[in-house]
Each structure stands twice: as C-alpha cells, then as structure tokens.
Write a structure and sequence with these properties.
Elements (H helix, E strand, L loop, with lengths): L1 E3 L4 H14 L4 E4 L11 E3 L2 E2 L2 H20 L9 H16 L3 E5 L17 E3 L7 H4 L3 H8 L9 E3 L4 H13 L4 E3 L5 E6 L5 E6 L4 E6 L6 H18 L6 H10 L7 E4 L5 E5 L4 H12 L8 E3 L7 H8 L6 E3 L10 H11 L5 E3 L3 H11 L2 E5 L2 H11 L3
Parallel strand pairs: 1-5, 1-6, 2-5, 6-7, 7-8, 13-17, 14-15, 14-17, 15-16
Antiparallel strand pairs: 2-3, 3-4, 9-10, 10-11, 12-13
Helix pairs in contact: 1-7, 1-8, 2-3, 5-6, 9-10, 10-11
Length: 391
C-alpha cells in the first residue's frame, strides 16, 4: 500500500503496518526521513534492518547504478532518495514480505515511490508545505499528491478542505479509482485518558471496534486512525485478511518515535518531542499543549530554512514559555538567530534564547525548567535523541 499526505502519512503508515503484523502478515515498512540511523527507514516485521543486510542491499544497488551508467541506460546519477527507495524494494524482496507499506517522500506524482502499483492508496491530509515543489494553492498541492492514484486502485482520503478533496476526487474519477472517504459513516467518540492518550469508541459501517486507546498521542491521531482503519478494511475486502482484533491491537500498540513522544528521565525531567515541521503540524502540537502539563514550558525550536517559520511560531508561541532558538546539524537548517528574530517579532515580550547546537539548546532549556518541549524539525529531534542517548 502507498501513503501520501502533508501530515499524518507516517502515523498512518505505522498504524497500518502494526495492524498487518498483528494479523499475522510479514511486512515491510518504508518511511522517511530517519531520526538517527538510516536503518530506521527500512523495517521488516516492525524492526529496522540490520547493518549487514542494509550494506549488502546498498552495495548491490550501487553496483547496478554503475553498470547502467556505464552502458548508457542511466544518463544521470540517481538521487539519494531514489537510491534508498530502490534499496527498500530490494530489502523487501529479499525478506519475502507479504505486504509492504510505503510512505511517499515528497508530494506524490513525481516521488520515487510512485513506481508502485499498490493494492490501495491513501492520502491523509492536504496542507501547505513544500510549496516551491508542489504548488501555491491547496488544489495544486492536492493534484500533486493525487498523482499516486492508480487506475482501478481504491484510494482512502483523510480529513481535508473541500477544495482539496474535490481535486483528488476528480483525479480518482479519471482513473476509475474507487474513492473511500475515511469519515463517511464512521463514528469515533473521543474520551481523554491518563498520560495524554486518547480513548476512542470506534464504529464504521462495516465493524464496531468498541473502545480503543490510541498508542499515539494527540486528538489529531483520531483522524489518522480512521484512515488506517479504512485502509485495513479495504485490504481485507481485497483478500488480505485483517480481523477487527488485529486492527485494535495495531492502533493500541503502534510505536512511532518523535510524534508527541514523552521521554521521562531520572530526577523528574520530562521532554515532549514532536516532529511538527509545518504550520498544520505546529497547530496540532499547540492543540495538544493546551490541555497538557507541558503548556507554558520552554520550547526548543529549530526548523529548515525553507519552512514557514512564522506560521509555525505563531501557532506554538502562545502555548509555550521561553523559546530556545537553535539549529539542527543539517545544511538546510535555518540559523538560530533568524528563528530568534522571527519569534521576537511575533511576541516582543517573549524570552528568547539563541543556542547554536542541540546540546547547548537542551542545557539552556533544562536550566529553565525540568519539563521542556522540542519541536520544529525531525532533523532536530534526531540530533536531540542522539545527543541525549535516547536513540
């Protein structure tokens, strides 16, 4: 199966993979980017591939690239993501997986993963991100992501603006792809539980799943869970058996690091890590913070320079305390001074600290409070997890 979307595609990929494994299927899971190690992108039965298997697959793909370049079949060298995608498919073939759950890297139409012809596709959400590549309007972005729709292959849609849904529906009609809107006929009544997790009582037109305590935190995960459930029901209809008990187990036991993840340390310190990397993701984090013990805590923030920094900070600043502006160890990262200037412009009275590394940022935040929030980029989260020994 193939999953696209501005936000939520990683969570839906992880949920679906967990449920398929609970149903007894041998799975492959391809996601990007990784937090700490490249191996994370390639999971067999929920476990990142080992170094030896990864090195062998990379070596074989590299040899094939060189051979094709030499005989003129490849005029240019493949990109990093094109190579990792080929490596993923090779690893899944060698592991003889029953089904692979693949997340789009960027967009859909031109993404390297779009050589797939899946049993089912899913588009989780449409929002503003990567506009320089995907378009400046929701409709343009939706059409790019709808590029993963294949003739006669069902496509499951998550929650999105009507203009985006209409654009995707148009592509689905052209390709005679059955359109499944995840929320249609479904009821998911939410009840808060301890540790900021959400209990939903879920019923679809096909099944009554009863109470499910979602493993992934945040109210927005209810929408992601609906998409995952509809995908799994569609797979079941197509002959990939996924009983209700496996769906429930998958949603309750899935692990997806860095997505509203709480890390508790000796001495009472707590860190909330979230890969909010665009305005919609920041808004989801802000909504979580409003009813969380982490509201008003210091925010360690770093993001890529091509992101909507103002949009992200406008969402987060009202729900956090002092801001520690920093940068990830990535060439695309925005300068800490620029982030600090943007934060001060949005809230002149805010306490803003500039830190030039993740270590310096963590030290500054811990001096202010035993409870902190780290967000803005998955690359920053990777640096923090690596620095703290949390990987």
């Amino acid at each position: 199966m193939h999953v696209a979307g501005t936000n939520g595609k990683g969570s839906v990929t992880a949920m679906t993979d967990a449920a398929l494994r609970a149903a007894g299927h041998r799975t492959g899971r391809y996601t990007s980017p990784h937090l700490v190690r490249l191996n994370e992108r390639f999971a067999i039965d929920g476990t990142a591939v080992d170094d030896v298997s990864l090195e062998q697959a990379v070596g074989d793909v590299r040899d094939e690239v060189e051979r094709l370049r030499k005989i003129g079949r490849l005029e240019v060298h493949p990109t990093f993501f094109e190579v990792t995608t080929a490596v993923a498919f090779e690893l899944f073939k060698r592991a003889a997986v029953d089904i692979a759950v693949c997340e789009v890297g960027l967009g859909g139409r031109l993404d390297a993963t779009n050589v797939l012809v899946p049993l089912v596709t899913a588009i989780t959400s449409i929002g503003f991100d990567h506009q320089q590549h995907l378009g400046r309007t929701l409709r343009e972005i939706a059409v790019e992501k709808a590029g993963i729709i294949k003739p006669d292959v069902p496509v499951v849609l998550g929650k999105m603006e009507p203009v985006a849904q209409q654009a995707i529906a148009g592509v689905a009609r052209e390709r005679h792809a059955p359109l499944v809107v995840a929320s249609t006929g479904a009821q998911a009544r939410e009840e808060r539980r301890a540790d900021e997790r959400v209990l939903i009582r879920l019923q679809t037109p096909r099944r009554d799943y009863g109470p499910i305590e979602l493993a992934l935190r945040g109210a927005h995960q209810t929408d992601n869970a609906l998409v995952a459930v509809k995908v799994l029901e569609t797979l079941d209809d197509l002959g990939v058996s996924v009983p209700a008990s496996a769906v429930v187990k998958g949603l309750e036991q899935v692990a997806w690091p860095g997505r509203l993840e709480i890390r508790r340390m000796a001495g009472g310190r707590e860190a909330l890590l979230d890969a909010a990397h665009n305005p919609d993701g920041a808004a989801a984090l802000a909504a979580f913070l409003r009813s969380s013990p982490f509201r008003g805590c210091p925010l360690v923030f770093g993001a890529m320079r091509d992101k909507d920094l103002d949009g992200m900070l406008r969402a987060l600043v009202p729900e956090t305390g002092p801001i520690v502006a920093t940068r990830a160890a990535n060439a695309r990262s925005a300068d800490a001074e620029e982030i600090a200037a943007r934060a001060r412009a949005i809230t002149p009275d805010a306490k803003v600290i500039v830190a030039h590394s993740s270590r310096e940022a963590l030290e500054a935040a811990w001096r202010l409070s035993p409870r902190i929030v780290v967000a803005g980029s998955i690359f920053l989260l990777g640096d923090v997890m690596n620095e703290s020994g949390w990987s």
